[in-house]
Write a structure and sequence with these properties.
Strand content: 25-35%
Strand order of the largest sheet: 2-1-6-5-4-3
Distance between the termini: 55 Å
Largest sheet: 6 strands, mixed
Shape: globular
Number of strands: 15
Order of helices and strands: HHEEHEEEEHHHEEHEEEEEEEHH
Structural class: alpha+beta
């Protein structure tokens, strides 16, 4: 397995300089670390962005203008090669919150003048000492729930901030033993293959094979977090299976791990069709929606203990005819 310490250092410098750069210098700062063909896959409404100028102007400047000063509170940081391309590409992953004061409108949402936490996860591919592509998942629906906007129904899981690992050891600034990362990757993929092979349906016997009994599923905005097998089935998989028809698993862009941590993202991962009330927002429909999903995992021994999940719900809902940002702005006006 490759030693990815140089790649980690590059991404840490990149993030630190984005965080402290003035808006007028953001594009220049990003271009210093990225290749000429650099592009990002972001959650709706940012979506796909190409080039340092677009990433600066359409993603980071709106965030920094609305929530200044930004403080990055990172909970997980690791690097690994990509199983999808037979470990030929190198990716650095980080997850946490962006803390800021909500002083200016964001996506049309009226500012509260209070501190807010934006839950995020990022993935960066590094080649020849340059970042060539990335993915930025910002849980905007969780942010909307944090503000208690009336267009968001009650969730089936626990609503609140999703913390980092219970063990407080998720920041792998130093290299981890190769064999531990392989164990994590193997376990993640065994669980995922069982889930996809079962048509995205989960039972307690399935969970017992791969998960600790006191598993914690730190779910996205619109669903919330669940604790233990019973809580997971009640708070997530039951409503998910009741509200949606599985159409297709479309695969991942990245699957990697280091030490006890690993994860993946897709663009999209799944295609699903509403068959009833999903998240209190849908009804039966023939429209098929794309689910862009992130899963990060913490392995404890030979089973999974914690799982952090991002779903680009704004994109999925818009695919099936529900524009939550549009609803909010219509209500506001």
């Amino acid at each position: 397995m490759a030693d990815l310490q140089q790649e980690k250092g590059l991404v840490l410098d990149f993030l630190n300089n984005i965080d402290k750069a003035e808006n007028k210098l953001l594009a220049e700062t990003i271009s210093k670390y990225t290749s000429d063909d650099f592009h990002m896959r972001c959650t709706h409404p940012f979506n796909e962005l190409k080039g340092a100028d677009n990433v600066a102007n359409d993603l980071w400047i709106p965030i920094k203008n609305s929530f200044k000063p930004i403080q990055r509170r990172m909970d997980i940081f690791y690097a690994g090669t990509n199983l999808i391309d037979n470990h030929s590409s190198k990716w650095v992953v980080n997850m946490g919150h962006l803390l800021g004061i909500f002083n200016n409108p964001f996506l049309g949402i009226v500012p509260t003048r209070k501190a807010v936490m934006l839950w995020y996860c990022e993935f960066y591919r590094v080649e020849n000492n340059k970042i060539t592509e990335g993915a930025f998942f910002l849980d905007i629906l969780k942010f909307m729930q944090q503000l208690q906007l009336p267009i968001i129904p009650e969730s089936t899981g626990m609503v609140g901030f999703n913390p980092g690992p219970m063990t407080h050891d998720g920041l792998y600034f130093n290299k981890q033993p190769e064999e531990e990362g392989q164990k994590t990757l193997d376990l993640m993929m065994r669980m995922a293959n069982r889930l996809v092979g079962g048509g995205m349906k989960t039972t307690v016997p399935d969970l017992e094979k791969d998960w600790h009994k006191d598993m914690i599923w730190w779910g996205p905005g619109g669903i919330g977090a669940s604790y233990t097998y019973e809580g997971y089935l009640k708070g997530h998989t039951g409503p998910f299976e009741d509200g949606l028809d599985y159409v297709e698993f479309t695969g991942h862009k990245l699957e990697n791990a280091e030490g006890n941590y690993g994860g993946w993202f897709g663009w999209p991962n799944l295609k699903m069709k509403p068959k009833s009330n999903y998240m209190g927002l849908t009804s039966s429909s023939e429209k098929v929606g794309e689910m862009r999903v992130v899963d990060l995992y913490r392995r404890n021994g030979n089973k999974l203990a914690e799982n952090w999940i991002f779903i680009d719900h704004l994109h999925f809902l818009k695919c099936v005819g529900i524009d939550l940002l549009g609803r909010y702005n219509n209500l506001k006006n």
